[in-house]
Amino acid sequence: MAWGSAEEQKLEHEAGNPNAKDWHDEATKIIKETMTEYWEQMKPLTTSKPPANSPNKHSKCPLKSDFNCLLWECLLQATVQTDNGGWKPELQRYLTDIPKDISKEMDIVAWWAACSDDYPTLSHIAMDICAILATSVPCGQLFSTGAEIATNHHSCLGANRFEQLQILKHAW
Description:
It contains nine helices and no strands. It is mostly helical. Among the domains are: 6-43 and 63-107, no CATH class; 136-171, no CATH class. 58% of the residues lie in helices and 0% in strands. InterPro entries: HATC_C_dom (IPR008906), RNaseH-like_sf (IPR012337). Residues 90-169 form the HAT C-terminal dimerisation domain. Pfam families: Dimer_Tnp_hAT. This is HAT C-terminal dimerisation domain-containing protein.
């Protein structure tokens, strides 16, 4: 029996838990909604992409920093190159081609980076989520690390570069 499946939900209901959920179904709904959202954000960009030498090439990018716009353009390029009918075939390929060597100890960020050509939309979603720190450290202590980067020497870098340093410090 798979974890979070309909069978497990039924057993939980029988054991007296009225709030049991089919977590597999919940996760599938969330993934479909998220992929639809990412795909819809990208669709207007694929129909009218400015030339690469355009001085205002980030004008259609819905993100604020240059770093995020660069990531957005890479995702857009990968999506245009592998456009095969939208996000549904990509999700179906992922759900049917899940590798058997997945374990708790594997590096999920490295796996998604390696599979970004096969699953461009899903890998972008995964990288957005994997960049969020999971920690039991109090928030105040977590955000105080900004002071380690925001030294007098680094203060002239500007907001975009500071954001990139913060992300790189924790994501890579």
